[in-house]
TrEMBL record:
Residue spans crossing the bilayer: none
Residues annotated as domain MaoC-like: 176-290
A single GO molecular function term of this UniProt record: 17-beta-hydroxysteroid dehydrogenase (NAD+) activity
One of the record's GO cellular component terms: peroxisome
GO BP of this protein: fatty acid beta-oxidation
Domain Peroxisomal multifunctional enzyme type 2-like N-terminal: 21-154
Listed name of the protein: HotDog domain-containing protein
InterPro entries for this protein: HotDog_dom_sf, MaoC-like_dom, MFE-2_N
């Protein structure tokens, strides 16, 4: 097959069946750091128990079923026309976004699927960046969530020439305003955070086996980027969403309608995180939604671990589902 990144853009891969139940939602909540006061996310008998709206990001690796999977098999997939051979051990998650179009049910039941197509490809001296658009489609045929995920294939080469083509992509964050953040939320990952997060479906050994983390140049294990993603989503909900009447210490998760970030640096299990949030005017103006921009930093080093953060949050209290 000839290598041609232009051919990759628009290529649709096979749909995969996905499912989840209440237990999966509880496990995800603790994987992204839910604390004893976040019972709306972490206790199925809570009066307003609701899914964390970012939950669907786990489904591409989890798929359907409950048992562990083999990470190496999960990422293999069928050959994509136009793509060169790339080293699966040198792929890093570049960015992730999710737009929630319909509230998720507490359990999927059968018949749900995950769709995927490539919507952008770019090559430069350092490697190849691919962006996929995914949708979560319910058994009723409706789209519940639309996601964009980009992966940076470090050292990969198609032609060696600069190239860029895109037919779609995630909503872009506005620049961070020149003022102190409107909200600051501190949180603590635990030494075992990756051991818990992986149970949601990402069994990549990089996050659990220190030898693999060292060989990959990280000096040990690193936390799943999507766990940090969930920590930041909890931060936005806790500070920007309307109070939940029955969980006054945390915000209502059902208010979050869009959430996206770039992954800018690794986080180690045990690191303390601080998310800095600015409310800005945005596409949500007039819709009862507020748009925010945010970044998440490693508290001790001050290093930005999530950048170009964008979220939209409904400001009016949500009716119970
Ligand atoms: C190539 O693209 C990646 C991902 O967008 C970026 O991080 C890197 O700095 C770029 N490298 C060059 C040489 O432009
Ligand atoms: C975050 O900061 C702590 C404290 O300085 C440090 O030990 C840790 O390695 C940092 N994390 C990363 C991924 O650099």
């Amino acid at each position: 097959m000839s290598v041609d990144l232009a051919k990759v853009v628009g290529h649709k891969t096979d749909d995969v069946p996905v499912d989840w139940n209440r237990r999966d939602l509880l496990l995800y909540a603790v994987g992204i750091g839910a604390k004893k006061d976040d019972l709306q996310l972490a206790y199925e008998l809570h009066k307003d128990f609701a899914p964390m709206p970012t939950y669907p990001v786990v489904l591409s690796l989890k798929g359907a079923g409950q048992d562990v999977n083999v990470f190496a098999d999960k990422i293999k997939g069928k050959p994509v026309p136009g793509l060169p051979d790339m080293d699966p051990n040198r792929v890093v998650h570049g960015s992730q976004s999710i737009e929630i179009l319909k509230p998720l049910p507490l359990e999927s039941g059968p018949g749900w699927k995950w769709t995927s197509r490539y919507v952008a490809a770019a090559e430069n001296k350092s490697g190849i960046v691919l962006t996929a658009e995914n949708t979560l489609v319910g058994a009723d045929g409706q789209v519940y969530a639309k996601l964009y995920s980009s992966s940076f294939n470090v050292g990969a080469k198609a032609t060696g020439q600069r190239f860029a083509k895109a037919i779609a992509g995630p909503p872009q964050a506005k620049p961070i305003p020149q003022r102190a953040p409107d909200h600051v939320f501190r949180d603590q990952t635990t030494e075992e955070q990756a051991l818990v997060y992986r149970l949601s479906g990402d069994y990549n050994p990089l996050h659990v086996d220190p030898r693999i983390g060292k060989a990959a140049g990280f000096g040990g294990v690193i936390l799943h980027g999507l766990s940090t993603f969930g920590f930041a989503a909890r931060a936005v909900i806790a500070t920007v969403a309307p109070r939940s009447p029955t969980s006054p210490s945390s915000g209502d998760p059902r208010a979050l309608t869009l959430f996206g970030v770039r992954f800018t640096a690794p986080v180690r299990p045990g690191d303390a995180l601080e998310t800095r949030i600015w409310e800005v005017e945005g596409a949500g103006a007039g819709s009862g939604e507020v748009e925010v921009v945010f970044e998440t930093v490693n508290v001790t080093t001050g290093k930005v671990v999530l950048g170009s953060g964008i979220a939209r949050v409904k400001k009016t209290p949500q009716a119970k589902m």
